[in-house]
Amino acid sequence: MAPATLFAVSSHGLPSHGLPPAGHPPPTGGGGLCPVAHAPAQALAQDRIDASAAITSDDVPAILADYDVLRAACPAAYTTRYGGYWLLTRYADVKAAALDSDTYISSVRAVIPSDPRGLRRPPLNFDAPRHTPYRTALDRTLKPARVRRLAGRLEAHAEAVLAPLLARGRGDAAAEFGARFAAWVETEWLNLEKETAPVLAATAAAWVNAWRQMDAERTTLHSGKLYDIAREVLRDRRERPRDPEEDPASSLLLERDAKGEPLEEVHLVYVPTPTSRPRNCRFPANEGRGSGAVCDRASWWA
User: Fold this and answer.
1) Is the per-residue pLDDT at 239 higher than 80?
2) Domain that holds residue 149
3) What distance in Å separates the CA atoms of residue 124 and residue 277, rounded to the nearest whole number?
4) CATH number, residue 241
């Protein structure tokens, strides 16, 4: 998330978590410089941070090793890569930022790298209270009772998608399992036709790769296919509404904005698609390979 107010990257004179307390201005002097107008003062050289494996590499051990370096020397590091962003490496800093939604906002940037088209999709790229009706609508369909009803079907999908990898004794957990299983989760949650799942998996994977490469034309091409699915779902639910506690699109159509008006069509289309789900566009290929390494290091976020 992009900071709405500035903070110094030096931990001198700051609370133990390294970030200034909410409502307090950042210290002046060597730190606290606007990263847009000036290069912020940091314990490590900017070139060293920008070249860090934590920012540029697909090598999981190298990434973890550089996180150790940054955590010790420059726990709140600013990089100029991908348009510039802050990298928080300590658990306390991440927690403090997550709990301070007035300072750390999502409407400027919520994913690294940002959408190459400059689009802002709800609810991920909206701040409170603007995101509230979208979150309310989606949360309504994720109550424990419904999740329990979906659990058996999702377990069956997980076993079926994982079976080929187990039979071979190897595989790409992100591309072969994660992408395909996520498509089945979307299909079940959104009450889509079963034949939609393979289309979602292939299209979403192509969309993420185009985004990673900052290819606006291909990102638009593939996201357009996802939006077509969303438009058809919304059209169907307007004609044949379903239980809003069981169907995200029907739930969204019930919500109203702060003026009491129905939610805008352009934003409704953005929500019930895989593109609205929070995902890591920076390292999607690493998620399967890196999960074991992260889980094995209980002290990684210390």
Assistant:
1) yes
2) 132-295
3) 8
4) 1.10.630.10
